[in-house]
Amino acid sequence: MAYLIKGAHLVDPQVALDEVADVLIEGTKISKVAQNIEDTDATVVDGTGKYLVPGLVDMHVHFRDPGFEYKETIATGAAAATHGGFTDVATMPNTSPVTDSGSQVRYQIEQAQQAGLCHVRPMGALTAGEQGEALAEIGDMVIEGASAFSDDGHGVQSAGMMRTCMEYVSQFDRVVCAHCEVESLTKNGVVNEGRASTRLGMFGWPAAGEELEIVRDIELARITGCDYHVCHISTARGLDYVRHAKEEGLPVTCEVTPHHLFLTEDDIDDSYDTNLKMNPPLRTQEDAAAMRAGLIDGTIDCVVTDHAPHAAHEKDCEWEIAYFGCVGLETSLPLMLTNLISTGEMSMSRLVEVMAINPRRILRLTPVKIEAGSAADLTLIDPTREITVTPEYLKSKSKNSSFLGATLKGCATDVFVDGKRTLTDCEVTA
Ligand SMILES: [Zn+2]
Predict the structure, then answer these.
(1) CA–CA distances in Å: residue 163 to residues 246, 260, 385
(2) Which residues pair with 11 in a beta bridge?
(3) How far is Cα 361 from Cα 367, in angstroms, rounded to an integer?
(4) Residue 166, Cα to own-chain centre: how many angstroms?
């Protein structure tokens, strides 16, 4: 199968590309990038008015498979990822059982291959059962294709255990990704501690609960030399610690979610919309502004969704007992286009760095470039096409979006994975 994408605006800072040209895909690879390519055998895809970029990567999603298939499966998660414009996702290991062995990693990769929509790059647990007490089978999981390691959902409470994890993982050239949470400080916390917890009369989850673990882990990265990545960073002070670590040349990176970029604790009103309950919680307006500035200035390396599907009965209840998290794969790119690209605050080139180039580097994936010979993993983006976020719009099995009802401008229209067209004019095509 061959595709000829004509007249799209190609954006790929890896090869200094920011211009309108044609791209020919033959088999699984890009075979030619040039002006006015003619190929009568290829299916022509009109790219006029659209951007073509290296396939988007979300390195923090929860596909709930195995164990919680009523919320999401690898197949439905892959459909949501494709609909959102992604070619690759990294799945977090807090499944049931926890993904802490090689066979678990292999199961996810095989399920994804059966779904045939996007690459799934499982993360393995750092500790057995994410219990924080003994190392998981790290080497076994690397052999089966684990992209990185994390106990996401929990902070690793013991500094000594985290040091052991870092020393071990660094031997395999993988990154430790940390959900930073000191549980003795966040116990019972359901909203940001401060104005929100006072106003709403609920237990607070303090910024310090996140920041203390970031500081601890930066110091552990210093003594172990391990590459260390902060998951879903949410506070301005935490980001300052990462900034200083980077200035010192320490191997530290971080990611942010769209909800921490574009929502704050002030969005929680007396409707108590539990789709705004997440972990870490929505923070202050100053924190969100710092996240946006950090993303633009290079301190934050990636945008991730922390896509966290939950069934209706787990969200249609009192705030205190509702589950943490929201789905995000199908709104991430539209939110970025609407809030940062169309306003001129961020360039498309920077978007490609934070949504395609940097996550591949952190996950140790082969770079995808818009040049002959590269894998044809590509995303075509219409910056003007409007979407309205409704339950029907979402391909995810769960509908717990923080942005239900919003109309956003810009989305992915077509996706190619190893030369296969997985999204065709906004329709998922397995
Ligand atoms: Zn987390």
Answers:
(1) 19, 28, 47
(2) 18
(3) 7
(4) 22
Cα of 231 vs centre of ligand 1, distance in Å, is: 6
For residue 149, report the distance from its CA to the centre of ligand 1, in Å: 13
pLDDT value at residue 430? 75
pLDDT at 415: 98
Task: Report helix, strand or coil for 45.
Answer: strand
Other CB atoms within 10 A of residue 6 CB: 20
Report yes or no: 295 and 303 within 8 Å, Cβ to Cβ.
yes
User: Phi-psi region for residue 373, left (φ > 0), alpha (ψ -120 to 50) or beta?
Assistant: left
- Max CA-CA distance within the chain? 66
For 146-160, give the secondary structure using H, E and C.
CCEEECCCCCCCCHH
CA 232 to centroid of ligand 1, rounded, Å: 7
Whether 306 sits among the annotated catalytic residues: the reply is yes
Active-site entry in 306, 377, 382, 414: 306
**At residue 97, what are phi and psi to the nearest 5 degrees?**
-70, 160
Q: Give me the residue label for tokens 């013991």.
A: 158
Indicate the DSSP class of residue 123.
Answer: E
Q: How far, in Å, is the centroid of ligand 1 from the Cα of 91?
A: 12
The one-letter code for the residue type at 209 is G
Q: What is the pLDDT of residues 309-358, one digit of tens each?
A: 999 999 999 999 999 999 999 999 999 999 999 999 999 999 999 999 99
User: Is the Cα torsion angle 362, 363, 364, 370 positive or negative in sign?
Assistant: negative
CA geometry: angle 328, 331, 334, nearest 5 deg: 150
- Decide if 367 contacts 57 (C-beta within 8 A): no
E strand spans, 304-406: 378-388
The parts of the chain modelled with pLDDT lower than 70 are: none
| Amino acid at residue number 279 | N
Distance CA 54, CA 416 (A): 10
Backbone dihedral region for residue 156 (phi beyond 0: left; psi -120 to 50: alpha; all else: beta): beta
Taking CA atoms, 78 is separated from 37, 62, 75, 84, 88, in Å, by 32, 11, 5, 10, 9
> CA–CA separation, 334 vs 85, rounded Å?
10
Residue 22, strand partner residues: 34
Contacts of 201 (CB under 8 A, 6+ apart): none
- Which single residue is written with the structure tokens 């180039």? 357
